[in-house]
Design brief:
Elements (H helix, E strand, L loop, with lengths): L5 E2 L2 H4 L6 H10 L1 H21 L7 H10 L4 E12 L5 H7 L2 E5 L12 E10 L3 H9 L13
Parallel strand pairs: 1-4
Antiparallel strand pairs: 2-3, 2-4
Helix pairs in contact: 2-3
Length: 150
């Protein structure tokens, strides 16, 4: 479909991580912030205990953040297609299959049966995005952000 599409790949999303102190801040504010914090604890525990990482990547929150603050994302318009990656070797195709989402300027030509589209591809995010997101996520029941530190 000819709808605008923006992609924030995993590598870019990994630049923002939610850790225990973030969830503590949210819990301290009560209301919806505490509710979200409580439900995110299990995911944080899994990432800490089973994966060995100090935090988790808030993929869905990043999608909302792009709508609110696109200036904090390093994006460019480029081409994308779903099709066979001609650069991948035989073993890769046996494991992952023939089709992949391919993005970049080298995706100018689509093979027969493939469709090429223009997309916005965000290769990086500004580290300041974490603080901006926390201003929204750590609000109290009246919708007030945390008071500024002296």
């Amino acid at each position: 479909m000819p709808l605008p599409t923006t992609l924030v790949p995993h590598d870019a999303a990994r630049r923002i991580s939610m850790v225990g102190t973030d969830l503590d801040r949210m819990a301290d504010r009560g209301a919806a912030s505490a509710w979200v914090s409580d439900r995110a604890r299990a995911w944080l525990s899994h990432r800490n205990d089973d994966v060995g990482l100090p935090g988790f990547y808030p993929f869905d929150a990043l999608a909302a953040a792009y709508v609110a603050w696109p200036d904090l994302f390093d994006c460019a318009e480029t081409n994308a297609r779903i099709g066979r990656d001609r650069a991948q070797d035989w073993l890769y195709r046996q494991i992952f299959g023939e089709s992949a989402l391919l993005a970049g300027p080298d995706q100018d030509e689509a093979a027969p049966g493939e469709t090429r589209s223009r997309i916005v591809y965000c290769a990086d995010v500004d580290p300041a995005l974490h603080a901006r997101m926390m201003l929204l996520l750590a609000r109290d029941s009246a919708g007030q952000a945390e008071p500024a530190e002296p």
